Automatic annotation (TrEMBL):
Annotated organism of origin: Pseudoramibacter porci
Protein name: MATE family efflux transporter
TM ranges: 20-37, 73-93, 105-130, 150-171, 178-199, 205-226, 249-273, 323-345, 365-384, 396-418, 430-448
Top-level lineage group: Bacteria
Cellular component GO terms held in the UniProt record: plasma membrane
Membrane topology term: Multi-pass membrane protein
UniProt KW keywords: Cell membrane, Membrane, Transmembrane, Transmembrane helix, Transport
Length: 456
């Protein structure tokens, strides 16, 4: 069945006709803004429990922070899987197959919700065991378990939001997920203050606020899908799992999800190494993290733009246009990310001073930013190239190479090199070197596979 209106009304992007360069930032910048806002709202949760829970402030912050590796691992796994839905839908849109698109939309919506239910049940059973295995202090453990149990209740709607966002992004409607996040994020902050200040709650207050806010964002996007006048319209009769479509989504998305999950594991190990260097190093590294995320969110956004634009154009049988997408993504991401890096680097010390005025903390944050920024141009290349390969449905190869080039290398660096070179600068050198190695691996794979040439 061929689509009569694949772009549709509103703010959908026609990815298979006309110029590309001016459409990429329209797609990528809202995606980056969405990721950055999520980070800011998460920081607001931590700030509220830290400032407004009185004597419980320190313990409450520690409890929320202790859960970050667990929730990050789960969310990154399913964010990666949602990318599979994005690719399948984008490819079908390019082919003009409405029937395939609508099967994928219904499948993605149902799978995400019920996968969230399954993970919630398992998490509720093993929550105390998981946190104890991470050596969470006994004083913090009860609050950490309480936060995690409430947060887990919201996983079905959190997963649903991420998959709904992937559906909208498949046709270029990146503003819609951003709009939903702005509303729910603002609601989350307000509810945090009401529960914590008004009702005198602690971690249970911010966790409950997070669940309610995510219910609102996922319900909003679900309502929008039901009202869509484009090919991604969610019809009630299509709200069922098509197993062949789910298999395609998982084949593409699962490797990306596992890659993201392994990233989290590697980062946990790196954080442990940072912790061994003292409080000033820990504070400086944390301060730099808030600034560096502004850049990396933009890099990831252009990687997703590469995936989605290539997916649609491959489906439309336009391999030469796919290659053009990759090169324009590289050029534009160099310009955008380079401008952000120059701006942050110019004001790095005053910005780091907003988090902590200790000169040692500012110094260590400055060192980390310098080494990370030196490697981010390598990261741009491999993220865009990985996105390009995924747009053709080649997902396992870039995932394996990235896990090896980034995660395995960093673990080897920490366990084999760092013990005899026990300084912060030497530890942070793992980042630019791993980015460079991964760029070489992904670039070599792209040259060997040449997916666009095989489509000709």
């Amino acid at each position: 069945m061929k689509s009569k209106d694949r772009a549709g009304a509103g703010r959908s992007i026609d990815m298979i006709h006309g110029s590309i360069w001016n459409k990429l930032p329209i797609f990528a910048l809202p995606v980056a803004a969405t990721s950055i806002l999520e980070q800011l709202f998460n920081a607001a949760d931590l700030a509220v429990v830290g400032r407004f829970t009185g004597k419980m402030g320190t313990l409450s912050m520690a409890a929320v922070g202790a859960n970050t590796p667990v929730t990050g691992l789960i969310l990154n796994l399913f964010l990666g899987i949602s990318l599979g839905a994005n690719v399948v839908i984008a490819h079908a849109v390019g082919e003009g197959r409405d029937d395939t698109v609508q099967k994928a939309v219904g499948t993605a919506v149902l799978f995400s919700f019920f996968a969230g239910v399954v993970v919630t049940i398992c998490g509720e059973i093993f929550a105390p065991m998981i946190l104890r295995s991470m050596s969470v202090p006994e004083k913090v453990l009860p609050l950490a378990v309480l936060y995690l149990r409430i947060y887990l209740v919201g996983l079905p709607v959190i997963f649903l939001y991420n998959f709904e966002a992937a559906i909208f992004r498949a046709i270029g409607k990146t503003q819609m997920p951003l709009m939903a996040l702005v509303v729910s994020g603002a609601l989350n902050v307000v509810l945090n203050l009401i529960f914590v200040i008004g009702f005198k709650r602690t971690v249970d207050g911010v966790a409950t606020a997070t669940v309610i806010a995510n219910c609102v964002s996922s319900a909003f996007l679900f309502w929008r899908l039901m009202r869509e006048q484009t090919v991604i319209h969610l019809a009630r009769q299509r709200l069922r799992v098509d197993w062949a479509t789910l298999k395609r989504i998982l084949r593409i998305g699962l490797p990306a999800g596992i890659q993201s999950a392994v990233f989290c594991v590697a980062n946990i190990v790196i954080q442990s190494a940072v912790n061994s260097l003292g409080a000033a190093v820990m504070a400086g590294s944390s301060a730099a993290l808030n600034l560096e995320y502004l850049i990396y969110a933009s890099i990831l956004a252009y990687g997703q733009a590469s995936t989605t634009f290539v997916g649609q154009n491959d489906g439309a049988g336009k391999p030469d246009r796919c290659v053009r997408v990759m090169w324009l993504c590289l050029i534009e991401s160099f310009i955008v990310c380079g401008a952000f890096m120059a701006l942050i680097w110019t004001f790095a010390k005053p910005l780091l001073g907003l988090f902590n005025t200790d000169p040692r903390v500012i110094h260590y944050g400055y060192v980390k930013l310098g080494l990370l920024f030196s490697g981010y141009f390598f990261a741009i290349v491999y993220e865009v190239m990985s996105g390009y390969l995924r747009g053709f449905g080649i997902s396992l190869l870039p995932a394996v190479l990235t896990i090896f080039g980034v995660c395995v290398f960093r673990l080897l660096w920490i366990f084999l090199y760092f013990p005899s070179h026990h300084t912060f600068r030497q530890l942070m050198m793992a980042y630019p070197i791993s980015f460079g190695i991964t760029m070489i691996l992904i670039g070599t794979a792209l040259i060997i596979r040449r997916p666009a040439r095989r489509r000709n």
